[in-house]
Structure formats: structure tokens, C-alpha cells
Specification:
Blueprint (H helix, E strand, L loop, with lengths): L3 H4 L4 E8 L2 H11 L8 E12 L5 E4 L4 E8 L11 H17 L5 E4 L3 E4 L2 E10 L6 E8 L24 H21 L9 H7 L7 E6 L3 E10 L5 E5 L6 E3 L3 E4 L4
Parallel strand pairs: 1-2
Antiparallel strand pairs: 2-3, 2-4, 4-8, 5-6, 6-7, 7-8, 9-10, 9-13, 10-11, 11-12
Length: 260
Amino acid sequence: MNLENAASLVARIDYVESTGSTNTDLAEAAVLSSADYPDLSVLCAGSQSSGRGRAGRVWESAAGASLSLSILVRPKGVSLEHFGWLPILAGLAASRFVTGVLPGAEVGLKWPNDVLVGDNKICGVLSELIGDGSGVVIGVGLNLTQSKDELPIEAATSLRLEGASVSFDAAVTGFLAEFVSLYEQFVNHRGDATASELRRWATAGCLSIGRRVRVMLPGDQTLEGRAVEIDDSGRLLIAVDGERQLFAVAAGDIVHLRHN
């Protein structure tokens, strides 16, 4: 394992062979020893036994088969109201990295932060405010070498299945380079997604825009309509069937519907 190139991009990077969840470990360490975990501290693992996704889903990753890492950010000068952009930023960074290693493939975001190749998921992101509220831990899981049988769902893929061979080290470095570039611009503009161009880039790279979608909202509610745009707060605006006013979705699972 050689993470020297990755280490040059961030304040701190640690690697463990295996863990339950990099998000849990990094979030706890960031609170217990905050001075030792500054902005852009990274924890990556060869394998995870209880990685967490949105809506409390749990997943596992075999040794070296996927990129499992978490990034602690303490975005100075960025108010809490702009933190909703951070997982979108991470998803965009992953999408850019995947695009670079899969030239010609249809790669993009399924709002808010899943990365798809065609209709298949290759990367997921989960962000969590740490216990003392001083920062956010962003977890990223990118499928590297899994075969179809090793993937947790049918509509999933890996870089290997798409024809690319990328080492764990190269994936860490490549993703972090994209993330840090976007993050620094975001912080330099104090979390303004329009001024930093994050909103424009995310909209351009979002496969959900213009498609009919089904949204599963908290509380087991659902709605259907056409995804129109991402607003200044990172919410997905939906033109709901039969409604004149756009519906702003701040949190929820999106399903792309095949009929447009």
C-alpha cells in the first residue's frame, strides 16, 4: 500500500486493513481528539464489515474490492445551511474520477450523490455531521474489482466490469484530487454553490435532471414527476404531476423511471 501521492493532497490520511465503518471510526476520532484531525483528514480501509448507506442500509466490502474511505471536513467560513452541498460535491468528485478512467461511458449523478454508469450504480456517498457539530464526515464507497456475483444489487457495476483496471492506491489519489479541487473552491466562496460553480457543474453532471423520477420521502411518502433542476440549497426541484408549483426535495431516495 503506497498512499504517498494521496497524502500530499490532504492534511492527514490513515489506512487500516479492515474495520466496521470508516465513517464511524473517523467521526469518533474527530470528536475525541479534534486537534489531531484537522480539515481534510482521511481514513481509508481495505475492507468494511458494516459500512452504512442512506436510510440505514448496511453493506460489506471485501478486501481490496472497493474503495472505502471517509473524509473529515471542517469548512471554515461555511455556514451550516450550505452543508447540504457537501455530499453532492463528493458525488461529483467521484463522477469526475470515474469519467476519467471510463472515457466514452455515460457517467453521472443520480441525485443527490449516487454515481451511475448507464443505469448501474458504481459509487455511493453518505455524509454525517459529527457529534460536536464541528465538522462533517463524508463516506465514499466506489466499486473497483467486483464481479457481477459479488455486487450487492443487480443494478450495480464496478470499474473492472466496465473494462477498467484501477489499483486501490490510484483510486484513492484520483478521487481525492477531484474532491480537494472542488472542496477548496467551495470553501473559498464560503459555501456559495453558485459563485463556486458547484451548482452549475452538479446540474450538468446530474442524470436525474429532465427525467421522470419517483421520490421516496421520509415517512414512507412517495411522489412522481419530472426532475427540473437543483436549487441554491442543493435540493432537487420536481414538477409533480398535476401541481403548478415545483416541489423541493431536500432528502429522499430517487428512482429513475423508464417512461419519460
